[in-house]
Amino acid sequence: MNIxxxxxxxFDSLGGIQTSVRSQCQELxxxxxxxxxxxxxxxxxxxxxxxxxxxxxxxxxxxxxSINGYEFVYPFAVYKRxxxxxxxxxxxxxxxxxHTNLGVxxxxxxxxKELDLPLVQSFHGREDVIAEKSTRFPRLITGLVxxxxxxxxxxxxxxSHAGTMTARNAWSVMLAQSEAADHVxxxxxxxxxxxxxxxxxxxxSVVSNALPxxxxxxxxxxxxxxxxxxxxxxxxxxxxSEKSPELLLGAAELLPQYSFVMLGNGPLESSIRHTLQSKKxxxxxxx
Length: 287
What we know:
Elements: E1 2-6, H1 16-30, E2 34-40, E3 49-51, E4 57-61, E5 65-67, E6 70-72, H2 77-87, E7 95-98, H3 103-115, E8 119-122, H4 127-134, H5 138-150, H6 165-179, E9 183-186, H7 189-197, E10 204-206, E11 232-236, H8 246-254, E12 259-263, H9 269-278, E13 284-286
Parallel strand pairs: 1-2, 1-7, 2-4, 7-8, 8-9, 9-10, 11-12, 12-13
Antiparallel strand pairs: 3-4, 5-6
C-alpha cells in the first residue's frame, strides 16, 4: 500500500508522538509499503521536500505560528493544492492516516475527501488536558480552535460528559474529526473507553505505544551489571506541564548519589534552569 501520513510534529523534533509515528512508518516501510509524511517544515531542513535513509518521503509545510514550541499549520487552500500535486507525482495513495486533529489533521480530512480515500484518525492524547495545562487561556484557545475546525470539518453533535467549557470545546473537535474518519485508533483501552463515554461512535481499535498494562504486576529482578559507577537516569520529552518534568527535578534533589539527564525543550525550560540554580541541583544536566 501507499500511505499518506499527516502529523503535526516533524521527525526531527523530540516527543512521544514523533517516536510513535516514526516507529509506525519505519515498520510500514520494512513490510514493503510506501509512506509519505505530511508535516510542518523542519527547522533544520534546507528544502521542503526530502526522502530519509529509510525511503520515507516528506512533504513539509511552513508553519506561520508557533505556540509553546508547537508548530501550527493553518489549512490554507494553497497547502491542499500542493499536497495533492506532490502526492500525484508518485503511485496512487491507498489510505490517509491522520495523527492530529488540528491544521494538518484538517488537511488530511480534505485530501481524503478530495481523493475519495479511507481516512484513519489516531489520537495520541487528550486535547482538553493539554490545553488546560499548557496554555494561559485554555477556554479562549479551545474556543477559537473549535470555531476554526468547524469551518472545515462538520460538527454534527456535542460531546457527552465533557465538563468545563474548555473540555467541551476540545472534545467537540476530537469527536468531529473522528466522525469524519472511517476508523479511529487510540493508544490504550482506557483512552478508547473515555472517547466512547464522550460520544465516539466510529469503529475503533487500540494500537499501544507504551508498556502493556500487566507489566507492573511482573516480579522485578535486580540487575547486576558490575559497573563501578552509579546508574544514570535519562528523561526524554517535551518540557510541557502535562509531562510533569518537575518529578525528575524532585528525584534528582532527593537522590544526589545518582546522575540525571533531561533531554528536551519547551516553555518550561527557563523555569527548570532557574530551579536547578536556585536549589543548587548539581547532579541533573538539562540538554
